[in-house]
Amino acid sequence: MATWVWAVPVAVVVIIAVFIGWLALSRDDDSDASGCIAGDLGLLVWADPAAEDTARSLVDAYAAADPVVRDFCVRPRLEIKDTAAAVDEYRSAMPGVAPVWLPAGSELTAGLAGAPEDPPVVGTTAEGLPVPLVAFGSSPMVQEDQARAAADFLRTATAGEGDSGEDGGEN
Q1: So what CATH class is 39-161?
Q2: Dist. CA 140–CA 96, nearest whole Å
Q3: More exposed terminus of the chain, fewer Cβ within 10 Å: N or C?
Q4: Where are the domains positioned within the chain?
């Protein structure tokens, strides 16, 4: 009769140990993807060829931070596009334009739908033209999640220059 008295507590301890081990292992598996439950979100960044160096350094720094916006892991992708061609695409108001744009010069950004009136300058070209960082807001051209990712990109790029005042990168 004494054997079962010892077997029951040992079985309970083993069951508890297995349960605790299972919990620990399941948390380790989830730790890498815990902030990205919605999956990946591509963030297209257009840059004029003259602004490529500035754009590449900003995109690389943003990607290295492993940004998460609204449960999406943001994956920025740089595409080189001439400023005039980009303006034409933005003015056409078709979906699929880049939510982030780094043109060569700031004179062509005025009047574009969803563009800020006074975008911050984040660099200069070899010719001395300013390189503004234009983050487009949510519109028929730019989906809301991409607009929020663009605002987060802007905040990250201008972090040393004060608050951008936008509230789009919340999780």
Answers
A1: alpha beta
A2: 9
A3: N
A4: 1-31, 39-161
